[in-house]
Amino acid sequence: MKHLNLLLSLIGLFLVILVGCEKEIKLKPESKTPDSELTTLITKQVDSLYTVYQKFDYDWIEFYADNYTAIYPDGPIQHLTKDSLKAQWERIYAKYEVKLLHRGRPTIIPSEDMAISYNSFNEIFINKENLDTIKNVGTYIINWKRQPDDSWKIVFETLQNH
């Protein structure tokens, strides 16, 4: 009986040490990406987004998460998909020629796995039938989120027209 109690005590002690070591390994803090690195990274993402956007095809939609949230002026909060975004822009491109005239340098507010970017924009939509022009000037605000594959995608967008 003494041997059984001793054996059970040793097994219990071994389990406590094993679980304690396992928790210690799991609780080891991950290294934090410096804000300056995140700011540079997100600035490059914004620059890349606008470079692709200016081609006025649909490749810029790849900067979005499969599901994202949007709030547009005078509208409700919308939970959208990349497919719905593409359908929306197919209708716009069918009716208008879109020209980005200018966009401001982005301001970045970094966090470890998320970042906010905002910048001014000035673009026009030219009606393909009658050449009427709609001016679209404002501030574009985006929430970027780090994805499991370490890429960054847009998970929220809004804009404020001036």
Strand and helix layout:
Layout: H1 2-26, H2 35-53, E1 64-71, E2 77-81, H3 82-95, E3 96-103, E4 107-110, E5 114-127, E6 133-146, E7 152-161
Parallel strand pairs: 1-7
Antiparallel strand pairs: 1-2, 3-5, 4-5, 5-6, 6-7
Domain count, please report it: 2
Number of helices: 3
- In the CATH hierarchy, the architecture of the largest domain is Roll
Shape verdict: globular
Question: CATH class of the largest domain, please?
Answer: Alpha Beta
| Strand-residue proportion | 35-45%
Low-pLDDT parts are: 2-19, 21-29
CATH topology label of the largest domain: Nuclear Transport Factor 2, Chain: A
Largest β sheet strand count, sense and barrel closure: 7 strands, mixed
The helix/strand series, from N terminus to C terminus, equals HHEEHEEEEE
Name the assembly state: single chain
Number of strands: 7
Q: What is the CA–CA distance across the termini?
A: 84 Å
Q: Mind telling me the C-alpha Rg?
A: 25 Å
What is the average of the pLDDT values? 85
Structural class: alpha+beta
| Helicity, as a percent range | 25-40%
